[in-house]
C-alpha cells in the first residue's frame, strides 16, 4: 500500500473481499486516513465491515444501483479475492488515474482493456515486500494497534477448521495453538 501511495491522507480506497487479507487492508487504509469502502458479494458482512472494522461504506457488488452510485469514486481498489472474477465492474469504480492492486491469487481474471484506457487506470500486483519493508510494516502495526482478528484453535480441531475454511466460515484467520494442544488430554 505504501509503495503505491495509498498511505496519503484523504485517499478513497475500496477493498474487495473481507477475509484474512481484506480485513487487514481495511485496518491499514483507515490508519492512513483514507475513506474506506468494502466491496463484497455477501450482504451478511456489512455489519462487520462498518461496525467492527470501521469502514465508511459497504457496497454489495451485485447491487447495480449501489455500484452505479459509486462509479468513479475510488482512488484505489485492493483486490484480495482469490476466486475467479471479472474486474470490469470494479474498474468502473476507479477515478481517472485510479489503480487496482491485486493481492489475491485467482486462477484467472477477465477485463476489457478499454476499461483501462478510458480513464488511464492501471492494474498492479504485489505479494509483499522484502525484509526492510516487512520490518517497517510490523513497526507501523505495533505503533498503530493493527493486528489480525484470529480464531485460536487446538491442533485437534484442524479437520473442522479445514471444512470451515472451504465453506468460507473463518473470522478471519485460524491460528493453531500448538503448545496448548500438546497439553490437552
TrEMBL record:
Species assigned in the record: Ceratopteris richardii (Triangle waterfern)
Task: Give TM regions.
Answer: none
> Which keywords accompany this UniProt record?
Metal-binding, Oxidoreductase, Zinc
For whether the record's keyword set contains Nucleotide-binding, the answer is no
Q: Which GO terms describe its molecular function?
A: metal ion binding; oxidoreductase activity, acting on the CH-OH group of donors, NAD or NADP as acceptor
Name assigned to this protein: Alcohol dehydrogenase-like C-terminal domain-containing protein
> Which PANTHER family does the entry link to?
ALDEHYDE REDUCTASE
Domain of life from the UniProt record: Eukaryota
Q: Which cofactor does it need?
A: Zn(2+)
Q: Sorted alphabetically, which InterPro entries does this protein's record hold?
A: ADH-like_C (IPR013149), CAD-like (IPR047109), NAD(P)-bd_dom_sf (IPR036291)
Give a yes or no for keyword Oxidoreductase in this entry.
yes
**Domain Alcohol dehydrogenase-like C-terminal spans what residues?**
22-141
Amino acid at each position: 500500500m505504501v509503495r503505491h501511495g495509498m498511505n496519503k491522507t484523504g485517499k478513497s480506497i475500496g477493498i474487495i473481499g473481507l477475509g484474512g487479507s481484506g480485513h487487514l487492508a481495511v485496518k491499514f487504509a483507515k490508519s492512513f486516513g483514507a475513506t474506506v469502502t468494502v466491496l463484497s458479494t455477501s450482504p451478511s458482512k456489512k455489519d462487520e465491515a462498518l461496525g467492527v472494522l470501521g469502514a465508511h461504506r459497504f457496497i454489495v457488488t451485485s447491487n447495480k444501483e449501489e455500484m452505479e452510485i459509486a462509479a468513479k469514486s475510488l482512488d484505489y481498489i485492493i483486490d484480495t479475492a482469490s476466486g475467479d472474477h471479472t474486474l470490469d465492474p470494479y474498474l468502473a469504480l476507479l477515478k481517472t488515474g485510479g489503480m487496482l492492486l491485486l493481492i489475491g491469487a485467482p486462477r484467472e481474471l477477465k477485463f476489457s482493456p478499454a476499461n483501462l484506457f478510458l480513464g488511464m487506470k492501471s492494474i498492479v500486483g504485489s505479494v509483499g515486500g522484502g525484509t526492510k519493508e516487512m520490518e517497517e510494516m510490523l513497526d507501523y502495526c505495533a505503533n498503530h494497534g493493527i493486528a489480525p482478528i484470529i480464531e485460536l484453535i487446538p491442533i485437534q480441531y484442524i479437520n473442522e477448521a479445514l471444512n470451515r475454511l472451504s465453506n468460507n466460515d473463518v473470522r478471519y484467520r485460524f491460528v493453531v495453538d500448538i503448545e496448548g494442544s500438546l497439553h490437552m488430554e
